[in-house]
Amino acid sequence: MSTEADILNSCKVVAIVGLSPKQERPSYWVGSYLKEHGYKIIPVNPQAQEIIGEKCYPDLSSIPEEVDVVDIFRNSDDVLPIVGRSH
Asked: What pTM does this model have?
């Protein structure tokens, strides 16, 4: 079984659903941290064109490359539909 450390060491492309352009939001902190530490971040936010210097996509299915990890910053009621559409 993989640990969180194993996952983070082997995965380098992280899609962040709900990444906010507002610097005071936790999603922004996480995205910035990951980018500063060598991860490629892919913002998923239909209301923004670019966040933290990266092009935004409206949903996971619009991302044109393979993603290793999906980090979701949404209300818990919104998570199941996001996960269900990503298959």
From this structure: 0.83
Coil vs helix vs strand at 23: coil
Tokens of 13: 């492309």
CA distances in angstroms from 7 to 3, 39, 68, listed in the order given: 6, 12, 9
The residue among 11, 23, 10, 25 whose CA lies nearest residue 70 is 11
Extract the tokens encoding 83. Answer: 């996960």
CA 30, 36, 38, 40 torsion: positive or negative?
positive
The one-letter code for the residue type at 85 is R
47: tokens are 């209301």
| Regions of the chain short of the pLDDT cut 70 | 1, 8, 75-76, 79-81, 83-87
